[in-house]
Amino acid sequence: MEKFYEKTLLEELHDIQDTYGYIPEEQIIRIAKSRNMPKSQLYGVISFYSMFHVEPRGRYIIRVCDSLSCHLNNAENVVETIKEYLGIESGETTADKKFTLEIVECLGHCGEGPVMLVNNKVYTKLTPQQAISILKECI
């Protein structure tokens, strides 16, 4: 006998995020109705988890660490160079939807800063010039 498996809310949100790259408003309305929950409660869940987004994001998510150890190793110079190169601020996405920039507190490579994560690839001991070369490879 087959068991009926209902996805948890988080599984459903992950699936939508994987499909669209973010969670569109029409999906939020659909989920809220199907689960008989207020949209505000669903937005509370989405905003609680940093991996969920309600706005379109870039194909390449660039995360630059600015924790104390990376900051002491001049992460600020890497960040400023990336911002200038892409023409965006932290939390923004380029107009062509290619890059989203996030400044984060820690990427777990504290002895190797500055550290940048592009999607799931880690780059350590970066100079501003190396960071730009990496981004140029994404184009």
TrEMBL record:
Its family remark reads: Belongs to the complex I 24 kDa subunit family.
Per its UniProt record, the required cofactor names are: [2Fe-2S] cluster
Q: Write down the Gene3D superfamilies for this protein, in alphabetical order.
A: Glutaredoxin (3.40.30.10), NADH-quinone oxidoreductase subunit E (1.10.10.1590)
Record bears the keyword Oxidoreductase: yes
Alphabetically sorted, this entry's keywords are: 2Fe-2S, Iron, Iron-sulfur, Metal-binding, Oxidoreductase
Q: What GO molecular-function term can you cite, just one?
A: oxidoreductase activity
The EC number(s) this enzyme carries: 1.6.5.11
Q: What is the recorded name of this protein? A: NADH-quinone oxidoreductase subunit NuoE
Q: Give the species this sequence originates from.
A: Marinitoga aeolica
The record's annotation in InterPro entries points to: NADP_DH_HndA-like, NuoE-like, NuoE_dom, NuoE_N, Thioredoxin-like_sf
One Pfam family this sequence matches: 2Fe-2S_thioredx
**Could you tell me the superkingdom of the organism this chain comes from?**
Bacteria
- Give the first-level EC class, as a single word: oxidoreductase
